[in-house]
Specification:
- The chain is α/β, with parallel strands linked by helices.
- About 60% of the residues lie in helices and about 10% in strands.
- Strand 9, helix 25 (about 615-630) and strand 10 (about 640-645) form a beta-alpha-beta unit.
- Helix 5 runs antiparallel to helix 6 (about 125-135) and helix 7 (about 140-150) runs antiparallel to helix 8 (about 155-185).
- The radius of gyration is 33 Å and the shape is elongated.
């Protein structure tokens, strides 16, 4: 059990992120992972973090998160974007709120009366059903917003959804305020009065005024600021002041935050800088918010809720879906909106939990809190586990998920588990003309094959390099000294290499060596005075295990070494050549020229500059690179030269790889402890890239 707050924050952040990554591999939203992490850490799981000991110490993070979330929701209610959709938004929000409230009210009223063993419906049943109906209107803006951002979803349905969520929570606050005031009057000895209506109007109008004032003030301050750090500091300070002011005045911070964001996004100058800056600040707050929400959830509530909880959960889903469908139908919305938007409104979390906490601290409603709390929390547990899945399905069915997410989508845990480690790389058939060997070949290009799955692809690379160097390919297989092979067995062993070289129009020499693998490769390369050595990383999830063989070979072999990482389809119609120092191009040029000779690909030279490089420096590097390429590289189908100020070299390379088939880059010359401390860019690319990679070691006699 954790008692220290700092340690607790570290555990919440670390476990939330870790389980969220597992959830992503299973194609579950990150939000579900965060909540599951909280459930695991909380009293429903391992009891590492308890609500009494640590949860309440971190409750201020919940307040900060709700304010930032509500402010972010306001950004999505841009009136200019909703031209033609305002009627849809208002109709869907109103009908799903009212129908959902009515259905939950009637269903829970009947169920509580049915299991109470009394002849008639009492005031107690009416108050309970009234409060549950009001709470059911609330959605989960944080969950919906997080799913939208995670998917990079953009489009009319996404905009409609975010606007409906914002409008729904505004209606939820209004309906809840009226319901609480009505409940107060029902249980009061004085009977009904106008006090409830006055209190409700005060909360709504006061929250609107505070939100409008905050939005205008933030906009005014941002007009005077231009530094991102200053804008974040000022904006966060004003938003937190807004939250504290609404708390002191007994207003709704959620409604005020949404209105502040709404005002800013609809101003004539439309300044979105603060929204973008806060997006980068939010992730750890989000993780804490959702994991803490999971800590607060108690799975035993599922038992306490009983049939009333089941009725609440089912009636809320039916009410949300049917209400949104009817509202969309009456407003003439698209068929996809009618059929799927209601599913995205099912998640329920922070706002509903806030309503429950308000009821539990209200002395007039204490008698109903013991029933409402387990019922609502049971619904929250279920809706937060399954709701994000339905929200994502809505985005996918609408076709508004970003291309980047769709490219990652197939890389699921299930796909990884079902893909065998030794699967054959997809090698495109050779469709070009045969390349003829030289009349008088000089030397060889050695290809060290180990696995039948990679033999053909490595033989093709070696043959193309041999053609460039006016040499012949030599396939080498290394066997243990105890595994002596007959001549027939040797011929069978080299069938993939022989067949692939013949397809390109080349003969290939073969040789079996009986020794340790590194020693044999060094001996073969030195004995034949090879022009180049071609090797392949193992087809596994840990390709860098091959480094223990590669290090001694690269330190003793005089010729260039090309090490091939097989991922996906092996092709080189579009080649990316990333580099840091221009001197690296000397080592890469022979390999690039060999690829050009074989297939005339499109080339992209990508120079990675320091992160603080200026625009002038980048333009100067690009011009110098273009001049070098035009004077040096011939016969390519097209050459593109880019120089960029790279904040993360790996991310810069991975971003470019989405438009390329093959990456060719130089290996790090660091060895041993130096490489462990400072790393190797090529090795990191090999581990993380989803494209084939050629890593080029220059050889001991080649200038670096």
């Amino acid at each position: 059990m954790i008692h220290d707050t700092t340690f607790g924050i570290a555990v919440l952040l670390g476990s939330g992120l870790a389980i969220a990554k597992v959830a992503q591999l299973l194609r579950l939203p990150s939000v579900t992972g965060f909540i599951l992490a909280g459930l695991l850490l909380g009293e429903s799981g391992l009891s590492i973090i308890t609500v009494d000991l640590l949860g309440h110490q971190l409750d201020h993070f919940t307040s900060i998160a709700l304010m930032l979330i509500s402010f972010g929701i306001g950004e999505h209610v841009e009136l200019r974007r909703l031209d033609g959709m305002r009627q849809q938004v208002s109709s869907i929000a109103l009908f799903q709120a009212l129908i959902g409230f009515t259905l939950v009210f009637l269903t829970t009223l009947y169920m509580t009366w049915l299991f109470s063993n009394v002849a008639t419906i009492t005031q107690h049943h009416i108050v309970l059903a009234l409060l549950l109906g009001a709470i059911s209107v609330a959605t989960a803006p944080a969950t919906t917003l997080h799913v939208v951002r995670e998917l990079g979803a953009k489009g009319p349905i996404t905009s409609t959804l975010m606007a409906v969520v914002a409008a729904t929570d505004a209606l939820a606050i209004i309906i809840f305020g009226i319901a609480v005031s009505t409940a107060h009057n029902l249980v009061s000895t004085d009977g009904l009065s106008l006090a409830s209506l006055v209190d409700c109007m005060y909360e709504i109008s006061g929250s609107l005024l505070v939100g409008i004032f905050t939005g205008l003030l933030i906009n005014k301050v941002l007009d005077k600021l231009h530094n991102n750090g200053e804008m974040l500091t000022a904006g966060l300070a004003l938003l937190l002041l807004c939250g504290e002011l609404t708390r002191q005045l007994h207003l709704s911070s959620l409604l005020a935050g949404m209105i502040a964001g709404f005002v800013m996004i609809n101003r004539a100058e439309r300044d979105t800088r603060l929204f973008r800056i806060i997006n980068g600040f939010e992730p750890p707050i989000y993780v804490l918010f959702f994991t803490l929400a999971g800590v607060h959830l108690d799975l035993s509530a599922l038992k306490l809720a009983g049939w009333v909880g089941v009725a609440y959960f089912i009636a809320r889903i039916i009410g949300k879906y049917s209400g949104s469908w009817l509202g969309a139908y009456l407003s003439g919305a698209d068929k996809k909106v009618r059929n799927f938007l209601g599913l995205a409104l099912i998640p329920q979390a922070g706002v509903a939990i806030g309503f429950v906490l308000m009821i539990s601290t209200d002395p007039k409603l204490a008698d109903w809190s013991t029933t409402i709390t387990p019922v609502v929390l049971a619904g929250v547990v279920l809706s937060e586990l399954f709701g994000p899945l339905l929200s994502r399905m809505t985005m996918e069915k609408a076709g508004e998920v970003s291309e980047e997410h769709l490219q990652r989508q197939s890389n699921t845990l299930l796909t990884r588990l079902l893909t065998p480690k030794g699967s054959r790389p997809a090698l495109e058939p050779w469709t070009m003309d045969e390349i003829h060997p030289p009349a008088s070949p000089v030397g060889v290009v050695v290809v060290g094959t180990y696995h039948f799955a990679t033999a053909r692809a490595l033989a093709r690379v070696a043959t193309i390099l041999a053609h460039h160097f006016d040499a012949l390919p030599l396939a080498v297989r290394v066997q243990k000294k105890t595994e002596q092979l007959s001549n027939d067995e040797q011929q069978t062993l080299f069938l993939p290499e022989t067949d692939e070289a013949a397809t390109l129009g080349y003969p290939i020499r073969t040789e079996v060596l009986y020794d340790k693998r590194a020693s044999a490769l060094i001996a073969a390369t030195q004995h034949h005075k090879a022009k180049a050595l071609v090797l392949g990383y193992p087809i596994s999830k840990k390709p860098l295990k091959f480094q223990k063989i590669l290090d001694p070979v690269s330190s003793q072999v005089p010729c260039p070494i090309v090490v091939v990482r097989f991922v996906g389809k092996m092709a080189w119609n579009r080649i990316l050549i990333p580099f840091i120092q221009p001197e690296e191009l000397v080592n890469l040029l022979p390999i690039v020229e060999a690829m050009i000779t074989a297939s005339h690909p499109q080339l992209t030279f990508q120079q990675l500059l320091f992160a603080d490089s200026t625009q002038d420096e980048m333009r100067a590097c690009e011009k110098k690179l273009e001049s070098w390429a035009s004077a040096t590289v011939y016969d390519a189908d097209g050459i593109r030269c880019i120089a960029e100020a790279s904040v993360s070299r790996l991310e810069s390379i991975l971003r470019e790889t989405r438009r390329h088939d093959l990456i060719i880059m130089t290996a790090s010359q660091a060895k041993g402890m130096q490489r462990r401390i400072f790393g190797s860019l090529a090795n990191v690319v090999v581990e993380n890239c989803k494209n084939p990679v050629f890593v080029v070691y220059p050889g001991q006699t080649t200038a670096c």
